[in-house]
Write a structure and sequence with these properties.
Elements: E1 6-10, E2 16-21, E3 26-29, E4 34-37, E5 41-46, H1 51-59, E6 66-71, E7 78-83, E8 88-94, E9 101-104, E10 109-113, E11 117-122, H2 126-131, E12 137-142, E13 146-152, E14 155-160, E15 165-169, E16 173-176, E17 181-186, H3 190-195, E18 201-206, E19 209-214, H4 218-238, H5 242-257
Antiparallel strand pairs: 1-2, 2-7, 3-6, 3-10, 4-7, 5-6, 8-13, 9-12, 9-16, 10-13, 11-12, 14-19, 15-18, 16-19, 17-18
Amino acid sequence: MADVIDFKIIGNDLQLVEVELDPGEGVRAEAGAMMYMEDGIEMQTSTGGGLFRGFKRMITGTSFFITTFLNAAGSGKKHVAFSAPYPGKIIPLDLGNLGGKFICQKDAFLCAAQGIEIEVEFTKKIGAGLFGGEGFILQRLEGDGLAFIHAGGTIIKKELAYGEVLKVDTGCLVAFAPTVDYDIQFIGGFKNALFGGEGLFFARLSGPGTVYLQSLPFSRLADRIMAAATFSQRDEQRGLGGIGGGLLAGGLLGSILSGGNDE
């Protein structure tokens, strides 16, 4: 059984989760996620169950080692906090109320109560694996306690009825219940595929079950940043011949400001 922990999510767009631990309780976290911890909390870094478990976590996009933050104080509650890696929201998942399992995209895991396991989830259909945006491998969180995942932008929770279908941009899918059928569907139409700007495939989700969506996938954010950086670099290179042009422009500007009296 997983430890029963209390928590508080702080912030709006760059959130952190503060976990309250009773003596002997612990929380497991992805490497590098810890923001602060109080005196009396002990760090225990391991593979979390042998080499095989470490390699499985690496396959899902997390680190080989996982760190447990344990309240080793003899008495009193202690607090440890974990921060999100980029703008978005932290989603608490009570696996005990979700059937003991939940599937999420790679790199979504942030932290979880001691006793929660991070497993590999292979997509069951080759089309979803090849074109679903996350490849064949997803993360499966198992246990009966609290786990926390992170996603970008605004988070939308959908409750799909039996047979209800939802088509989603492949990058916007964050997590879903094992009861949800996950597949991909060709967007359809020559012009839609080439000029629609939505890629070639949708993720097709069929209920019943819970689905979490994100408005700003990290891949989309990274693409925008790269595009802006590339455009800015090209713009600078075009401006008066790059560096030489910058020096020339600086000399002309200085001459103008000084009234043209320089020798």
